[in-house]
Amino acid sequence: xxxxxxxxxxxxxxxxxxxxxxxxxxxxxxxxxxxxxxxxxxxxxxxxxxxxxxxxxxxxxxxxxxxxxxxxxxxxxxxxxxxxxxxxxxxxxxxxxxxxxxxxxxxxxxxxxxxxxxxxxxxxxxxxxxxxxxxxxxxxxxxxxxxxxxxxxxxxxxxxxxxxxxxxxxxxxxxxxxxxxxxxx
Length: 185
Known about the structure:
By secondary structure, this protein is mainly alpha-helical. The chain has one domain (34-180). The protein contains 7 helices and no strands. The protein has helices at residues 3-56, 60-63, 74-99, 105-119, 122-131, 137-149, 162-180. Helix 3 (74-99) runs antiparallel to helix 4 (105-119). The longest helix has 54 residues, at 3-56. It is rod-shaped. Mean pLDDT is 85; it is low at 181-185.
């Protein structure tokens, strides 16, 4: 074997090593992206889960805002506004993550459906007239378009889980009982 043959052989081995290392780096980048996507989804789904847990702890007066936001007391309006805003901000994050390829279509549809169902309640629609003024314009445009596409007979947020509507009815009944003894004799 001549010196020239050894030189060409070493060049071939060097090129193969470079190609192999580039393939390995590409594989690592792909794995890293998958892990980043999974972590992003997991974090946002944790926020949704935490949000749902807060609904179970919601003051009945605040929950009544789903039926009538405009006529609720200011404290209930404030807490209701913070509650719904939080979910709309979660929806906005999911919207951006989906656009950037970090979210699956199925997960997006669940989050979007929750936001739309919330905004379709009577009180949610009343709040939306104020809330959309400080929410990002891209998600506002998207939700406005989607709200216009939904069949009016589609169940809203209070119909997603049987306990939601039942809890609202119980809160209304408690409110009526609380005001019965306040009349003048």
